[in-house]
Amino acid sequence: MNLIKSAAIAAIGLVIASPCLAQTAVAQPSVAEPAGPSPLANDGPYAGTSQSDFYHPADRIKQIQAALQNGALAGPSARHAAAQLTAISQDLKYRIARHNGDLRDWDRELINQKLDALVKQYPALRT
Fold first, then answer.
1. DSSP annotation of 36
2. Sign of the Cα pseudo-torsion (57, 59, 63, 65, in order)
3. 35/46 Cα distance (integer angstroms)
4. Burial level of 57, CB count in 10 A (0-12/13-18/19+)?
5. Measured between alpha carbons, how far is 65 from 81 in angstroms, rounded to an integer?
6. Consecutive 10-residue runs of the chain (127 residues): their mean pLDDT?
7. CB–CB of 82/27 below 8 Å?
8. What DSSP line would sit under 43-101, residue for residue?
């Protein structure tokens, strides 16, 4: 009877250990190693968007300032557009400082909407 119990225990142990032995034979990637590039990986702030497709508001502000300096507008419209652009720039600086140098997505969208409205008001500033 002891022989039968020993054989049964050995069989159970072999059944339990066999999945572990099978896994060690096949190379499995470890949890710490990435299996490949993530489908959501990109260089932009949003998934599926590259940096060239989504401008940082500071870059857009510089482009609009350059257009103003190159004479895209004249007279009171140039002064008014420059004042609006300065206010947008100050708002951008505030929003970046508020989050320790990080520009949040909703803040980025808000600033870009303000820049879009400025360019819509003065089409000559379109870059």
1. S
2. positive
3. 22
4. buried
5. 9
6. 69 64 53 52 48 70 92 93 96 92 88 92 87
7. no
8. SSSSTT--TTTS--HHHHHHHHHHHHHTTSS-THHHHHHHHHHHHHHHHHHHHHHHTTT
Give the separation between CA 84 and CA 114, rounded to whole angstroms: 9
Shortest CA distance to 47 belongs to which of 111, 105, 112, 108? Answer: 105
The DSSP output letter for 115 is H
Tokens 């990986």, residue located: 41
Contacts of 53 (CB under 8 A, 6+ apart): 44
Give the whole-angstrom CA distance, residue 46 versus residue 42: 8
Instruction: Provide the whole-model pTM.
Output: 0.58
